[in-house]
Specification:
It is a single chain. The chain is mostly helical and 75 residues long. Helices cover 81% and strands 0% of the residues. The protein is built from three helices and no strands. Helix 1 (2-21) packs across helix 3 (50-73) and helix 2 (29-45) packs antiparallel against helix 3 (50-73).
Amino acid sequence: LFEVLGARERVVKEIGVYKAKNNIPSLQAARFQQVLDKGIEAGKKEGLSATFVTELLDAIHKESLRIEDALKTNP
């Protein structure tokens, strides 16, 4: 699980660099809502509650935003 999350965050760094160079805000609320909705549906198929999926994806998203914002202040 942590290897997958680490790989995801390495991609987040690449995206963060792109966003920083192009003055794109880290938070894309509409896009995150799409990801959240899709995650909740996928979680339901696995017997996971919407609350659990939301909390998990929120935590992952917060870490991604932290990484992207750090890149903007420390390129």
